[in-house]
Amino acid sequence: IGSGSYGDVCRATDCQASLTVALKRVGDVLCCPLLAKRVLREVCIMRRLSHRYVITLTDVFISMSMEVSGGIDLYIATEFADGGDMYHLREPLTPQHVKFLMWQLLTGMSYIHSCRVWHRDLKSENILLMADMSVKICDFGLSRSAEEVKLRYYRAPEVIMSRGQYSSSIDIWSLGCIFWNVQTREEPVTPGQGLDVIFNVIGTPGWSDIESVPSESWRSYLKHLPGRVRNLTEQLLGYVDQEALDLLFRMLAFNPGRRCTAEEALSHIYVSNRLYFAFSYKYSM
Question: Which residues are known binding-site members for ATP?
């Protein structure tokens, strides 16, 4: 049914529990220390997390390798999301549907961050959907505890410019990119590209934000850039209302210190009236 970090995923049945699961096989898991360490980290993090909007780990087991003589394959079983992933979602979404999805994602991410875990690889392919359109954040293969973060998919500006000097706000940047994508079905910033592409969207930073950058060489680079005005409003004209636009501004702020947290985003007027839009979503299906 797909592939995750360093492993293919198939649909399977847990015969003991009579449960349909998603089963990821990591072939020859002990072939190198780096792979073994990453898989162990993913399993340990998943065992720590228990939340309705985070994929549930149901089992972990090993077997003799199917491909390498004397090797060991490791299998990770999780609950099966029968609605596919957000990237392949083709169903038209109303503004209320988008609100409900974003509220779930922010709620799940607030919990993950409260456990001092940073996902680092948030993208629409890693947001699974159940049949009732509830979300499941998955694929923690690149996740780290708060002490060991490195790089990720939708790279926030501070990830490009620093060597590990960043925080959980990198996940909020990624959620902002997903928010944009679910509204327009387009990418605001091509994954993996640099600051120039980012500044085409959010504009160049002001002097106070430049001074917050730890690296002297990066501060010098930013100060000599020609100023550019953010064009978020123009690009999203006709897609979102002012409340959604304001939240997006806060999630895609250049300065991580000015970027909202998941908890703060949940208090924003765009998603704070959750009982209304959850009710609206349920009865509009």
Answer: 24
Domain ranges of the chain: 2-79, 95-282
Fold designation for 95-282 = Transferase(Phosphotransferase); domain 1 (1.10.510)
2-79 with 95-282: one CATH topology?
no
Closest by Cα among 161, 184, 200, 174 to 252:
174
Whether 8 is catalytic: no
From the list 28, 73, 85, 121, the catalytic residue is 121
Query: Which residue numbers belong to the known binding site?
Result: 24
What pTM was computed for the model?
0.85
Residue 110 is given by DSSP the state H
Q: How do the pLDDT tens digits run along the chain, 285 residues long?
A: 776 567 788 899 988 888 899 999 888 888 888 888 888 888 999 999 999 999 999 999 999 988 888 889 999 999 999 888 888 887 778 888 889 999 999 999 999 999 999 887 888 888 999 988 899 998 876 555 544 444 445 778 888 887 666 788 999 999 999 998 888 776 666 555 578 888 888 889 999 999 988 889 999 999 998 888 877 777 777 778 889 999 999 999 999 999 999 999 999 999 886 554 554 445 444
Kindly report the CATH number that applies to the domain delimited by 2-79: 3.30.200.20
Query: Nearest to residue 224, comparing CAs of 204, 197, 244, 248?
Result: 204
CA nearest neighbour of 39 among 28, 50, 48? 28
